[in-house]
Design goal:
single chain; alpha+beta; 3-stranded antiparallel β-sheet
Length: 162
């Protein structure tokens, strides 16, 4: 029963994080004009952009490629949800990482399906980098957490092996 609760809690957390992402995108698009910038924190500013591509705006000028990518992301999201529900993702760090990745994927996928683009709004001012959003942060944190856990788990298994 505890394992089922953990899986459902992970999916609920993913849904809540995706809802936070949607709300932040709504606020930015309602209060900032496209390409307008506003200071947020030292080294970080708000800059509202519509990203028609995928990571770093790749494939933005290819609508058919974006449709293929959208279908693949839908399949990946469905697979991730099923894996969480049936318990194939078990350890807590892996479950937390899956929740973060699902949240970010859902947030950006909803944008893509509703608008045909993803709303990005965070931009570093101290380095030239892509404009990104809360969903991107969730995905990045989830991948980093999953990678760290996998490396630690492998190291721990080797350490315990005779």
């Amino acid at each position: 029963m505890r394992k089922i609760r953990a899986r459902l809690l992970a999916l609920l957390a993913a849904a809540c994080l995706a809802a936070i992402d949607r709300y932040l995108k709504y606020l930015v698009s309602a209060r900032i004009a496209p390409q307008e910038t506003r200071p947020l924190l030292p080294g970080l500013r708000l800059r509202y952009t519509n990203n028609t591509g995928v990571s770093f705006s790749m494939l933005g000028d290819s609508p058919w490629a974006m449709r293929v990518v959208t279908v693949l992301v839908l399949l990946a999201m469905a697979t991730g949800i099923v894996l969480v529900l049936i318990g194939k993702i078990r350890p807590l760090p892996a479950l937390a990482a899956a929740a973060l990745i699902l949240a970010g994927g859902m947030g950006n996928l909803v944008d893509r399906l509703l608008n045909g683009y993803v709303v990005d709004y965070l931009e570093f001012t101290f380095v030239r980098f892509a404009v990104f959003n809360f969903a991107d942060i969730c995905i990045t944190c989830g991948v980093v957490l999953l990678s760290a856990w996998m490396l630690w788990d492998e190291w721990y298994k080797k350490r315990k092996a005779p």
